[in-house]
Amino acid sequence: MMTACAPLLAFLALAAGVAWAAPRAATAEYLLLPGHGRYKISANYKTWEAAKRTCEAEDAHLAVLDSEEEMDAVINMLVRCGIEYTRFDFWTGYYRQDETGQWTTVIGRWPVGGTGTGYTGWMSGYPNGVRDAACSRLLLTINARGLINGDCTNVGPFICEKNQ
Fold it and tell me: Which residue positions does the secretion signal occupy (predicted)?
């Protein structure tokens, strides 16, 4: 796990203003979460669209959390990588379509107001209807865990997902 978490730990050290050196063997690899898929946490700050393109260039997509079990597995992965008791949010694969105003996913599932698994993981009060907040983020704090919506032009870290 240390190897896969190395880029994220370096990012956290930078954000906290402390020195940290990655192990020489550190790579940005995908972690298998059995029964769900393979995931990579990117600490590179990008807009939602740039994050989407980055995942697609790796034959992946922004993470779409289809169930509470998958959400918990990804959150546990983040916690094992040292993301806990802080405030971080990561771009994920839900977005609001301009033409319909409905939320969908980068893989074509309709999580809100349509067909699909029926699970979205939105935190209470989200999506909040703010016009410019049309992209999803996975929020992780000491008191809250779940999806929120945010301005797609803001930059932030993101999670890519590959099928098993």
Answer: 1-21
The Cα–Cα gap between 101 and 98 comes to 5
**pLDDT, tens digit (0-9, with 9 covering 90-100), for 86-132:** 677 899 999 988 767 788 889 987 655 444 556 778 899 888 878 78
Contact (CB, 8 A) for 77 and 69: no
Q: Tell how far CA 58 is from the center of its chain.
A: 16
CA-based angle 128:131:137, to the nearest 5? 55
Report the mean per-residue pLDDT for the chain: 80
Q: Say if CB 5 and CB 82 are below 8 A apart.
A: yes
Rounded Cα distance between 14 and 33, Å, is 27
Q: Which domains does the chain have, with CATH numbers?
A: 2-15+29-162 (3.10.100.10)
Cβ proximity of 136 and 149 under 8 Å: yes
Which of the 8 DSSP states describes residue 40? E
How far apart CA 65 and CA 78 sit, in angstroms, is 14
